[in-house]
Amino acid sequence: MYQKNLYKYTVINYTQNPPSLGGNWEVGTETSVCFSRSPKKAMAFEGAVTERHEGVVGCPVLRSRTLSKGGKILFDITD
Questions:
Q1: What is the pLDDT of residues 37-64, one digit of tens each?
Q2: How confident is the model at residue 2 (pLDDT cuts 50, 70, 90)?
Q3: Would you give the DSSP letter of residue 18?
Q4: Residues paired with 7 in a beta bridge
């Protein structure tokens, strides 16, 4: 399987721990990536999935979703 034939769906959740929840404005990220031959399966996380967490666990603040194929970005949504 070549990289140019795969769809890559990436979801990044940015989190923050405010003082009202016992933090000191620490930040963190949760990254989930899925590779699949089908864009529908990639967006449903039905392919090869990897997850990574960096920083502190806190309240979700921002989410970024990206779908790409062969290094070309098909869409990028931040909400």
A1: 999 999 999 989 999 999 998 899 999 9
A2: low
A3: -
A4: 36, 69
Q: Which two tokens stand for residue 44?
A: 């449903």
Q: What is the pLDDT of residue 1?
A: 52
Cα 64 versus chain centre, distance? 6
Cα 69 to Cα 25: distance, rounded to the nearest angstrom: 36
Domains in the chain: boundaries:
3-68
Number of residues that make up the chain: 79
- State the pTM of this model: 0.88
Query: What is the side-by-side strand order in the sheet with 7-17?
Result: 48-55, 26-36, 7-17, 59-69, 72-78
